[in-house]
Specification:
Layout: E1 10-11, E2 14-15, H1 19-33, E3 38-42, E4 54-58, E5 62-67, H2 73-86, H3 90-94, E6 99-104, E7 112-116, E8 124-127, E9 130-133, H4 149-158, E10 163-167, H5 173-180, E11 185-189, H6 193-205, E12 213-216, H7 224-229, E13 233-238, E14 243-244, E15 248-249, H8 250-258, H9 261-264, E16 265-275, H10 282-292, E17 296-301, E18 318-324
Helix pairs in contact: 4-5
């Protein structure tokens, strides 16, 4: 990583001289993404020197660029010039690009600056032939975590005929994938009623039978009885935040969930346990499961999408499968 300096056109993780690599990557990844929602550039994985503090997403024919640290004036000017120039490229026309938005994540409120076109705040996007409605510009997260693409694909492929429990459901991405894959029922649990409402909309977008989907705006730790009554489950997905003030702290509370799994899971059921904190490794989940639910054994780690390559895989998203065998 570059040194933190205020000289010339570089700061830590933001070097103007590295921007040609940024634009080359966007061009090649945009060709691969086509019309699907996708991370095009992941500087946060520290695979590109001088670009560690910038990302770029392709969201509903919008280019969403996020800068995470105060850039030099030279870097910012070159970045904007290159992005605006993209709007005149044949590739932009081929991909039917609509707008280019620059989000200043280092500023309070993470304000967005529209460089080209108009911001589409609620686009409907496609991932693996599934539709999702996003909410752009209101929060730092727009309703679908793109690094979980292969996790959702795995759930879709494994859900046929199953009863699925989706803990910390957020906007129900796993639930939509499960029903799309033929699940008999999905039970979504999340404290945020507004997130679950968006999840319901995502199911409707895909023409799903909502009689097969439950939306429970519950505090998980106070609702085990209600959750258990809808089981036992063939597949349980656990995808918590690293920290949620007043309700969840990863290193303290994750084990409280793991110890409940034996009473919730069918004899040959699977658990997909996820953690996205760089402060803990896969071993945190493996050891925690062995301690709290030894009936479940570790089977595999689901790959992260290649566009989320990280110099240290243990600092990136960890998605681990555990199984309870007969």
């Amino acid at each position: 990583m570059a040194e933190d300096t205020m000289n010339g056109d570089s700061l830590a993780g933001l070097q103007a001289g590295a921007l040609p690599i940024f634009f080359e990557q966007i061009h090649s990844q945009l060709l691969l993404a086509g019309s699907e929602v996708r991370r095009l550039f992941h500087g946060r994985g520290r695979m590109f020197d001088g670009l560690e503090q910038i990302t770029c997403d392709w969201v509903g024919q919008q280019l969403m660029v996020s800068v995470f640290k105060q850039p030099s004036e030279g870097f910012l000017n070159n970045l904007k010039h290159g992005l605006i120039a993209m709007a005149d490229s044949p590739l932009w026309q081929k991909c039917q690009g609509r707008s280019i938005v620059l989000q200043h994540r280092y500023e309070k409120g993470a304000p967005s600056e529209v460089l080209v076109g108009e911001l589409q705040r609620n686009p409907i996007v496609v991932e693996s032939d599934i539709n999702y409605r996003l909410d752009i510009g209101q929060n730092q997260n727009f309703g679908l975590f793109l690094d979980m693409r292969l996790g959702r694909n795995w759930v879709k492929a494994q859900s046929k005929g199953k009863n699925v429990l989706n803990l910390f459901a957020y906007t129900c991405g796993f639930s939509v994938a499960a029903i799309e894959g033929g699940a008999d029922q999905v039970v979504n649990v999340d404290m945020s009623r507004s997130s679950l409402t968006k999840g319901r909309e995502n199911h409707k977008l895909n023409g799903h039978n909502l009689n097969q989907v439950k939306f429970l705006a519950y505090d998980i730790f106070r609702s085990w009885g209600k959750i258990s009554r809808m089981g036992p489950y063939d597949l349980i997905v656990i995808d918590p935040p690293s920290f949620q003030k007043g309700s969840f702290a990863l290193t303290k509370d994750y084990k409280r969930i793991l110890r409940r799994l034996p009473e919730l899971l069918n004899q040959d059921g699977d658990v997909l346990a996820c953690v996205n904190s760089p402060k803990v490794s896969s071993q945190f989940l493996i050891d925690g499961m062995q301690e709290e639910a030894p009936e479940l054994s570790y089977k595999e780690r689901i790959d992260n999408p290649p566009e989320f390559a990280d110099i240290n895989p243990e600092a990136s998203l960890k998605v681990l499968r555990f199984s309870r065998e007969k």
